[in-house]
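**User:**
My hope is that you can spare some time for a protein that puzzles me. This is the protein in question:
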Amino acid sequence: MAESKKKKAERIKQLWQAADGATRQQWEARSQKGYDFFLDNQLSVDEKSSLESQGMPTFTINRVTPVIEMLCYYATANQPKWQAVGREASDSDVAAVFSDIMAYIWDISNGQSVYSNILTDGIAKGMGWMIVDIDANLDRGMGEVVLRQGEPYDIYVDAKSRHPLFDDAEYIIAKKNLPRRHLMNLLPEYAKIIKKVEGTISYDVSYSEKARDSQQQDFQYKDITESWDVEGEQDQILEYFEVYHREKRPYYNVFYRVLPSPEEMQQIRQEAQIQVQKMQEEMSVQLKEKGLQIQSAVEAGEIIPERAELEMKKAQEEMQVSLQQAEMEITARLQEAQSVVEQKVVSEEEFKILSNNQEFQGVLVDAVKFFENKIIRTCVVGDKLLYEIVLPSDKYPLIPFMYRWTGTPYPMSAVMPLIGKQQEINKAHQLMIHNASLSSSLRWIYEEGAIDEGYWEKYGAAPGALLKRNPGFENPVPVTPMPLSNAFGQITQMDKVDMEYMSGMWASQMGDVAAQHDTYRGLLANDEYGTRRVKNWLKNLIEPALKRVGEVVRDYSQALYQTHKVMRIVQPNNIENIQKTEINIPIYNDYGEAIGKWNDYAAAKMDIVIVAGSSLPVNRWAYLAELKELLQFGVVDDIAVLAETDIRNKEKIVQRKSLYAQLKSQISSMEGEIKDLNGTNETLERQLVQSGIREQVIKAKERIGDIENDEARKIHTAAGDSLVQHKFLQRLQKEEEKKVRQKKDLTETKKK
């Protein structure tokens, strides 16, 4: 066993040496040159010596760093967002929790800083790496899924890979040079093995010479060639390898029946006995009824007593057999109802062990063999193999973030096309400054002995100086530099514009007021059109990598988070608002036993998508102006506009506005009620007036009727008296006239 581990460790080291071939070294050298330009280390030692020997300046006009910083800002202005889509209806609710889990993992991993550094590597070096891993020591030993940054120059990919995410790579190697004590602290469970590893690696001499350069502007990790422990002693540097490779391994999809526990079996038997007892009581009654029928037949002489006895005996035996069969059927039926068929995926080795178990063979329903891609991680220190484990995802947990994919594992950085223009800018400025320096400090041609050299060097450039020469010699002749062409100034300006054009980062986007548009809408248009190249890069390379991060995190989190877990996420807009998310919540029965899980995250099946453009910056002023226009059209309310402002205590303002809105709605409703009451009052008043008029009309009719009756009686009593008749007619006429007037008065009253 020890020999196989040693051979495997030697094979891994040989694999790394093969991966670190000429192509890889050439790519790293070119990438390192671009990264040096980004860090403003743009002149080599030979170039500095050459310039200094000619008396020329060695400064640089760094135009690369602002471009890279702006590119990084555009790609990391906001936190990327992931969403999960459930494959089945039952998975939709659990899938909605994934966004919270991803935000929680992003938070505990300091994801925004890690993501920003990775994008900086991708832009400046050509490729950055995000690593998804499990830290078993977090959460008090329960473990957490974390995101880490990988060093591009430490990771070696299969040179034959042709996939932008290296899905077709045979292997990916992460190789580091770490101190022994650091490795022992990093992997304490393997400290004894690490302590036995021998030898210190040798570094490239060029890096040590570079570290001793007094004019070196930056120091990178390869410049550090020594390590010291806490005891002040020099620690040995060891080679540390992590090898990831894909391998198809056999698995079995096993379907098996879960039998009831002894307690459940006891409950099943009790239920069966209760049902059998009820059946026995029913059959006993039927047996008595049959006995009465047989007895009646014997008394009637239809059958003899011996036949009756035989029939009763047969009926008792049939009842016993029926009871036994019913008990067995009920027991089997209840047991089958209590048994549940479950499905589980096991490895071939586990299935072989289970197949040798007689009890498992009795509950096995079906087993389907299949092959699944698995990522194997092998860890080696020096010549010692530490471990080899199967990772929970079928995708590499090392996700590349490239700037420009070339169809190979050796992408290009954003700095590479800018190096030539940067060197041209540096050279043009150096020549112009050198020419100006020569013009302000004249050089002289003189005959030897004609002047006092020390005096001329001291006062030759002083204003109003009297410079003497020795007699008998010619006057010293000044050597003036040739005037530079105005094209040098134009070249530098053209180079700056060319760098902006090649990178897609214009001066207006960096805050250059002179290069900005005059109008506000024109500035927004420049901001929209000027970032299309950045959006294309994000859409085609960065967002697929972010989606892969979400997929690997899903696999890792489902494998790790299988117990009840509570996650608290601080909202970025309001630190006082903490969101709480729970998964794998146990469900208990009446006996306090866990019978299932709510929000069973490990069993959910879901697909991961990245929200497009979620990491891009948002022009807040343009967005606020758009919200104002939508507010005028009534599409949004003032609360939506307030949420996008920088006003302090926005939450309290929203609460007050909500209270005002409630009071306003109450006042509006009360005003409506008052209007209804006023209308009702007016209607009632009109009805009251009309009823009074009708009452007066009725009373007037009653009085007229009484008068007519009285007059009719009087006419009958005085029918023979003509005078009386004449008076009666006059009086009747007056009464008629009076009626006409009353009717007229009533008509006017009604009109009023």
